[in-house]
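Case study 2.
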Amino acid sequence: MNQPPTPTAETVRRLARSHLHDGGGEGEGPDVSPAGEGGGPLSTWWVGTRHVLRLATDRDASGRQRRELRLRALVRSHVRIAVPTSVARGEWAEGLGYTLDTRLPGAAGEGQSVSAVGEADLAGLLAGLREVPVRQAEALGVPRVPPRSLETLRTDAARAAGRLAEADEFDPARLAQFTAPAARQLATQPGASVLVHHNLRGDHLVVSGDGRVRGVLGWTDAIVGDPAEDIAQLAVTLGAPAAVRAATLAGYGARPCLRGLWLARCDTLVRLADGLEGRDRTPLPVLRERSRRAWEAILLERLAELPDDDTP
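Prediction:
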């Protein structure tokens, strides 16, 4: 079986040169450099100061990239935050697609301080995603994914907490609130599925120096499913209080907010335990910081006062 080709700087420069006209004379082109560590299904490169080139490295990623371009067009009419625009697209090798996108100004969001106005930006994102017609998203090929079992997640997190306690990384008593009755109480309600970005990690949120959230990238993993997944990812990326405030501003009640916290806190415990045991290659300081953000204290008694309706 033939191995797919690997994009190189020359591959990127050649594609950029064919679409852009400000890269110098013949044989030259704009400055290009890898964006991130690579190794995933998309190879992402900075092209000059105004563009990003993303090349699919397998056919599945090519299909998801084509779907993403159509989905971004649908989402753009419902959310107030900027979504990248493709200025060129095509195949860089047989069956492997690429898209040359505009680069949104700002910095990666993970660990950034988001202002109150930035939280309102996130609220607009969450509310806009809920407004996207689910049938239209599914018609584009966005998959419907059932909500995760909180009981299963609770069991996995309890095991992880035990391993972390042995390493003096976590006090398992903090999991006392995650009970079986609570898992049943926080089950999703019928009709609660919405379009979910499903990957609101730090490098997919563009944050400006004044704490505004200016753009959202990385729509290839979007699903129709549990909105608490996006709330959870915001908790991991920006902190639990900011995530809950944004979700509340978006009109979400207690159940999805608490589900989001449960998902974020259990997920980060499992990943930190895996990191300590060498099964997750993310640097341990990063895993510890994500867990800290997800476990930041919030006023849970205030959440109990919120409307308990998933679809306000």
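The chain has a mean pLDDT of 90.
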